[in-house]
Fold this sequence. Notes:
The complex is a heterodimer of chains A (367) and B (174). Chain A is α+β, with helices and mostly antiparallel strands and 367 residues long. Chain A is 48% helix and 14% strand. Chain A contains 15 helices and 10 strands. Chain A has a 3-stranded antiparallel β-sheet with strand order 1-4-5. Chain A has a 3-stranded antiparallel β-sheet with strand order 8-9-10. In chain A, strands 2-3 form a two-stranded antiparallel ribbon. The longest helix of chain A is centred in the N-terminal third of the chain and has 29 residues, at 92-120. The mean pLDDT of chain A is 88. By secondary structure, chain B is α/β, with parallel strands linked by helices. The longest helix of chain B has 12 residues, at 100-111. The mean pLDDT of chain B is 85. Chain B has helices at 3-10, 35-44, 100-111, 167-171; strands spanning 15-20, 26-30, 49-57, 61-69, 76-84, 89-91, 114-116, 146-149, 155-158. Chain B has a domain at 3-117: NADH:ubiquinone oxidoreductase Nqo5 subunit (Beta Polymerase, domain 2), CATH 3.30.460. Classes of the chains: A alpha+beta (367), B alpha/beta (174). The A-B interface holds A 40-41, 44, 46, 48-49, 84-85, 209, 211-215, 225, 227, 232-233, 296, 298-303, 310, 312, 314, 316, 324-325, 327, 329, 333-334, 336-337, 366-367 and B 21-23, 25, 48-52, 54, 56-57, 65, 67, 69, 71, 74, 78, 97-103, 110, 123-127, 134-135.
Amino acid sequence: MARTEEYQLNVGPVHPSTHGVLRFVLTMDGETIKDTEMVLGQLHRGIEKIAESRSYLQFIPYTDRLDYISGMTNNYGFTKAVEDLAGITVPKKAEYLRVFVMELNRIVNHLVCIGSLLLDLGAATMIIYGFRERHKVLDLFESLCGARMTFNYIRPGGVRGDIPEGFIDNAKEFLRDMPKRIGDYAQLINDNEIVHMRMKGVGMLSPEDAINYGVTGPMLRGSGVSYDIRKDDPYSVYEELDFKACTRPECDTYARYIVRMDEMYESLYIAEQALDKIEHLSGSVNTHFPRIFTPPEGEVYSRIEAPKGELGFYIASDGGTRPYRVKIRSPPFCSLQALPQMVEGLKIPDLVAAFGIVDIALGDVDR
Amino acid sequence: MSIQSELKTRFNDAVIEVYVQKDGKPGVVVAPESLAEVCRFLHDSGFDHLSLISGTDRVEWLEVIYHIWSYTRKENVVLKVKLDRDKPVVDSVASVWRGANWMERETYDLVGIRFNGHPNLRRILLPDPWEGHPLRRDYDMSVDQYVYIDEDGKDVVTTDASKLLREEALHGKN
């Protein structure tokens, strides 16, 4: 009888399927994964330490560099914590603008996630299409704030600037075209036999385990738990908007993929409603925010539904101009912990699929 | 009944103080030795999502803060333990919420709090031989630590930059 011996296999840190610099140390039995260990920290920049020596406004550009694919939601996550701390209320128009850019950012994030996942699985088409639509969104963002990746747009008290001329028309054109594009992607991918073979039944995670591991966002909803912070612990103006949380009960990689596709439609629908409000509301997009800002003493923890899951900022203030402590709850850092269980007993190519759909940005994991 | 009074009735002596966080979340300061018991109780009564573990250096003491959310009750609760600076040890809750594993490792790594009974308490973001815990208030920021890989492939941390290949670049010598 053939005898097998366990061995360790190193993947990464520089490997195309790790989406950055993450290292896996796999314990293998033949071709079967028995245990997965992840070595993090290659992109650790000490952002929480940096926060202690920056003022509240100065820290916002650093949040862009956490999850560098969805800078807008990171901006808002920190901004919301500061606003909760100081009790700042924001004009309605600014809130709708925030929701609008955050939902477009969600679409961008899901396009990049699905595109790079399929690239890892050997289908190079989707990432080209995904980036084509991503550029249209980035053009919109650039006209708003001048940047395409590191926005620094949402800030305490409102947003940096009002919409420029022609923005509404460009945004409407995008919202009109995009559903058809998502339909195209669905036609390409959803019923593809290879996609089914690679993703269905791979990376199973039961709802109980998902909750226990602290998995959030599309990963959790792909395990059949209908939970969305925008709905269940609402913030900003989400209560006034009509949308639904997308869930799938299958608990596998394919379910998480479908959740992301459905969420893009929902995001478009939310963005449409927000744009309608932006068009008809007038007035300022800023309240006065003092240049030397000293919030009251105290602690807050505020969380939002970022594209990748629950993004939380804990701020402890001592009443000074700089935060005493900032702690970031990054969604992929928590979701990654479930990966060893998801891939146990699978083969290495399945690891690529199960890991790709976790949707991580190493800037967010390592901070 | 609010969760604060629920905890107060059940764990009378273990609840040192109740407070309200600036954003309205109910907070409870718990005695470190009963933390694991309180967490187990909270988990079993529906607080199934551990959002965040964070550690703060308050100079006179160290504290660990647990932000917990219940999917079923849609309620928040914040637990806080205050630890002696000389002996910052608290029980691990990784057996209650498996998601606590990495968060506790990170708190150990950056703030230097030890978690009793943790399955794998090693540094997670910094290399294993790193000196000090950067988020402590007394961490010396003026000392640069360099990491290189020795012949066995292990991370080695040194304050001596001459070990690095980039010595000239670092010191501006040509």
